[in-house]
């Protein structure tokens, strides 16, 4: 009788824990100390080798991350196929267009800009074309002439699911204007050229394994992997807000009909309405927003922590970190 009563008591307590996180039982208790983060694929090294471990050490919470192209990740949240505690996007417009507002079920009500970045051309140091890339990096020959070399293979992201993909298109369009060379656009072979376009999460691996001689990446992807790269002028690398008007000349319409305009590269962080572990999410967002030096070590640029959406919905522990309003 006593054993039966005890089993029933434990069973009831665990049922209660489903609606009361602080009473979670067994594995649920561990899950409540875990923050799940869905993040832009280009952040894989930064998150798994930098932010994630540093957060666990600093906070005592467990970190669990998943990399996806930002557009694809937002669609997963929108279709209720993912319910992360934190979402980190590679473009504020992804938050605005896919997750915010009544038309999107108010899945997000705010976001905060984390950091800025820029596009670079990274190359494999063991490529048979590495000498040419080194000359381009030293500004001795134009980078676009190197990419035009017969037999050279370079990769880029998918513009339909990956902000880096459509930003690469913008970069080439801007370069054609900047250098007065329309033939630069021929290097792409079309926006969705299957010989160049691959999922964001495999691009670096293909470059490092030698399947590509070069690729278009964010600077923060390349710095921690110690890969050589070619810096691009601020007028075309999408990394300088002073050239916002020039960047805005370009646009791309995805196959689903979404039109995206050129803008400086900014990464955002938010807590979706479907988040299940709010204390862990708050701790993680605060940690990221106060980790400027760590982010800079990975190659990010400094930027204001401006906010988008409804600032009154930002949790109080985070509001003092917001420095202004995001202006698209």
Main attributes?
328 residues; alpha/beta; D-Maltodextrin-Binding Protein, domain 2; 7-stranded mixed beta sheet; 4-stranded mixed beta sheet; 13 strands; 17% strand; globular; disordered N terminus
Write the layout of secondary structure elements.
Layout (H helix, E strand, L loop, with lengths): L1 H16 L9 H5 L2 E7 L3 H16 L2 E7 L1 H9 L7 E4 L2 H7 L11 E7 L2 E5 L6 H8 L5 H5 L6 E2 L7 H16 L21 H10 L4 E5 H4 L6 E2 L13 H4 L3 E3 L5 E3 L4 E5 L7 H12 L2 H6 L8 E4 L6 H4 L4 E2 L3
Parallel strand pairs: 1-2, 1-3, 6-7, 12-13
Antiparallel strand pairs: 3-11, 4-11, 4-12, 5-7, 5-8, 9-10
Q: How many whole angstroms does the radius of gyration measure?
A: 22 Å
Task: Give the overall average pLDDT.
Answer: 90
Q: Structural class of the secondary structure composition?
A: alpha/beta
Q: Describe the global form.
A: globular
CATH topology of the largest domain: D-Maltodextrin-Binding Protein, domain 2
Order of helices and strands: HHEHEHEHEEHHEHHEHEHEEEHHEHE
Strand order of the largest sheet: 2-1-3-11-4-12-13
Largest beta-sheet details: 7 strands, mixed
The CATH superfamily of the largest domain is identified as: Periplasmic binding protein-like II
